[in-house]
User: Which sequence fits this backbone?
């Protein structure tokens, strides 16, 4: 069996026990609120990781690409929500999946998208809850539903995503974001029902709001994806702790610049992504925190800078720890700011157990669109 000392760096390590614990935490919370989890597979993009969620049984999922939908359909998942506004040129692939018996629902927020749908295709209407991205106002949902009905497509309900919750800091702000997300979704569903549509699906979700919702009356399902891996952005707003991060980038020390206080690695932004998501938070973690190969964090050490294939490790601004002695060839683990972006740089996961370097599986990731 190989260990984290073996694969060529940089590569991803995933701790499956941490993923399971993260899954249990959200599962229990949502069970307590009486709603179904429709896990978003956009972060992990892995059938194997998703299998950690429901003892390997296919369950309802959300996807961000049709490539994810196709890969999960091939693995036996048949209740799939494609939660990016539908582009008409993607409809042949949507229909091909539906013809294979997959109950694939699409998302839209305009009359133009609605009237382009073929008859029989179910759609959720995207509702804006916080000005983050697309979506109609709740009171405008019936107009889109009427356009869907006019072409024989199926208005199945509403969806909203509290994208601004990633900038909510602290429990009160997170709880408020969750309550607002629910209120806007329920308002839109009520508007649809008042206009004569059933709107059986009321779908909300983001990792922060999923964890901080206290009352989901009127909601039928919650979507979240990041919660399986978590990252420093989530830790920075208090949704998890650094110990809950399940995925790291393994890199090798390739040099030193003592004059500058730098340790160089072969893990540049191609390995971590350019995401500096904590820069706007109270603690800027630069490109990520740094741990040894067994997962123990180095005091005050961050990945301070990055070029394409070089990472620069240094003591954070204001840090008091000494630069650790990491000879050339030493492997380190970088804890990422944004798990979705970091994972997207790689095509597989090396799966380990806590406190062990043994790699007991290599799981592929789904790539492309
Ligand atoms: C439509 C939609 N639903 C749910 C999510 C939840 O994602 P996360 O768990 O990463 O917050 C996202 C994230 O971008 C999304 O776009």
Assistant:
């Amino acid at each position: 069996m190989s260990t984290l000392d073996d694969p060529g760096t940089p590569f991803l390590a995933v701790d499956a026990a941490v993923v399971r614990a993260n899954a249990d935490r959200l599962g229990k919370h949502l069970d307590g609120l009486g709603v179904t989890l429709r896990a978003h597979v956009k972060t992990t993009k892995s059938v194997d990781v998703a299998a950690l969620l429901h003892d390997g049984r296919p369950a309802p999922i959300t996807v961000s690409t049709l490539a994810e939908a196709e890969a999960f359909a091939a693995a036996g998942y048949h209740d799939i929500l494609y939660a990016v506004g539908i582009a008409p040129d993607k409809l042949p692939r949507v229909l091909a999946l539906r013809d294979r018996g997959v109950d694939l629902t699409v998302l839209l927020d305009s009359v133009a998208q609605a009237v382009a749908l073929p008859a029989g295709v179910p759609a959720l209407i995207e509702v804006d809850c916080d000005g983050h991205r697309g979506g109609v106002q709740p009171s405008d949902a019936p107009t889109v539903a009427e356009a869907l009905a006019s072409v024989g497509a199926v208005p199945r309900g509403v969806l909203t995503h509290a994208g601004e919750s990633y900038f909510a800091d602290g429990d009160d702000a997170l709880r408020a974001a969750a309550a607002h997300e629910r209120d806007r979704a329920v308002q839109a569903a009520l508007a649809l029902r008042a206009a004569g549509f059933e709107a059986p699906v009321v779908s909300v979700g983001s990792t922060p709001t999923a964890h901080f919702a206290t009352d989901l009356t009127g909601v039928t399902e919650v979507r979240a994806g990041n919660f399986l891996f978590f990252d420093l952005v989530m830790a920075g707003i208090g949704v998890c702790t650094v110990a809950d991060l399940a995925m790291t980038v393994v890199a090798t020390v390739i040099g030193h610049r003592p004059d500058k206080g730098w340790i160089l690695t072969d893990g540049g932004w191609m390995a971590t992504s350019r995401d500096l998501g904590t820069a706007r938070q109270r603690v800027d973690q630069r490109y990520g925190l740094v741990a040894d190969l067994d997962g123990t964090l180095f005091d005050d050490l961050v990945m301070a800078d990055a070029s394409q294939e070089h990472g620069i490790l240094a003591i954070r601004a204001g840090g008091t720890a000494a630069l650790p002695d990491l000879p050339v060839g030493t492997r380190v683990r970088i804890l990422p700011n944004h798990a979705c972006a970091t994972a997207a740089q790689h095509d597989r996961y090396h799966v380990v157990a806590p406190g062990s370097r043994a790699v007991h599986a290599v799981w592929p990731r789904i790539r492309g669109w």
The CA atoms of residues 111 and 144 lie 5 Å apart.
